[in-house]
Amino acid sequence: MKNLIYNLLFLGDKSKKTIELNMKKIVIVLIFLVIVLCIFFSFVYYFRVPLINMNLSKLFAVPVRLETFDLSLKQVSVGNFEISNPPKSQVPKAMTIQSLIVNTPLWNYLGTHTDIDSISINGIDVDVEFYDPLYRNMNWDPIMGSSSTTTKEAPRGGESSAFIKRFTIRNLKITLRLPNQQPLSYSSIAQR
């Protein structure tokens, strides 16, 4: 049986010494590949936040920054997320979020339909600024416009859906800036 396995693996009659040498080479190559993959995934894990910042900044065409991004088997959490305003805006940030937590098992993201147990957003501050008196141009136009133009339309077979069981927003503040007027701030109702 052992000789049959050797013959099947190496397609021919070779000496036992040659087969053992080839097996050692295969084991060394496999160990090397495992080490390279571990180094690669360690690199990606260590630089995950700068990589996400860079990709989101390209997507939104404005600087985007997040301080923490943690991924576990049951939860994704983001801390101190900021989207900057375009250059001609009065304030530097279009939106800040203190924390965003998505609770769902990681394998739920693999299918076309995702069931999300809960999304919790805490400390969200949104700045909406209109640039002209007719309220046609605003700070969110370049941010959302660039993300919609860079996203290619998914083919019909690639559509996906999500069902969110619980969605919570705490400490929401919206600031509206109209031309030649004082900013208007709208805060969320305090929780009891």
Overview of the structural elements:
The protein has 192 residues and is an alpha/beta fold. It contains 4 helices and 8 strands, in the order αααβββββαβββ. The protein has helices at 2-10, 16-46, 48-60, 140-150, and strands spanning 64-71, 75-84, 93-103, 113-116, 118-129, 161-164, 167-177, 184-187. The protein is elongated. The model has no long low-confidence stretch (mean pLDDT 83).
Secondary-structure element string: HHHEEEEEHEEE
CA-to-CA gap between the ends?
74 Å
Number of helices: 4
Number of domains: 2
How many β strands by DSSP? 8
Spatial strand order of the main sheet:
1-2-3-5-7-8
Structural class: alpha/beta
Percent helix, as a range, is: 25-40%
Quick one: overall form?
Answer: elongated
Low-confidence stretches: none
* Assembly type: single chain
Biggest beta sheet attributes:
6 strands, mixed
